[in-house]
């Protein structure tokens, strides 16, 4: 989902920037006296964006204003969704560690993610591991994806993850609990021939 959002974000920004650059440059060129083509929206330097006949052409049609308002509402909702998706943080930036003296310390979320990922990758039968932290800094939650070798027992790999990597992270950060959602996936391999 994050890769899709990142791609949509880049494409929308690129298209919007290109359209604004072309339109702005064309309007500036016509304003500076460059001859505009016959199909262009501006005829010359003193031309307005929408003349009276263009503005009032659809005024008497009953469908015009509801269609315009519906299109603007859809554009507004899409822009709002895009803004919320871009601004919302998906990762936990820091974790509050209780030091016992009432002060507390801050641990970078990425550092804890990297340690969890490397410790989970070191488990027997795990080809690759990826861990992300979400939630609040006083109550983080882990999201882990494990890529398992073909001959490993998924239950055993999950047990090792919870009793080793997650337990170490929970104890070292002084957290009361560290809930986790784990996705297990097997490595693709060719079928073995049985004779």
Could you please describe the fold and organization of this structure?
It is a single chain. The protein has 195 residues and is α+β, with helices and mostly antiparallel strands. The chain is 47% helix and 18% strand. It is built from five helices and five strands. It has helices spanning 2-31, 52-56, 64-87, 109-121, 154-173; strands spanning 94-97, 105-108, 126-136, 139-148, 180-186. The protein has a three-stranded mixed β-sheet. The protein is elongated and about 75 Å long. It starts with a helix and ends in a 9-residue tail after the last strand.
Shape: elongated
- Outline the low-pLDDT stretches: none
Strand order of the largest sheet: 3-4-5
Report the sheet with the most strands, covering strand number, pairing sense and barrel closure: 3 strands, mixed
Mean pLDDT: 82
* Number of distinct helices: 5
Q: Which radius of gyration do the C-alpha atoms yield? A: 28 Å
- Beta-strand portion reads 15-25%
Order of helices and strands: HHHEEHEEHE
Distance, first to last CA: 43 Å
Protein traits:
47% helix; 195 residues; 5 helices; two-stranded antiparallel sheet; alpha+beta
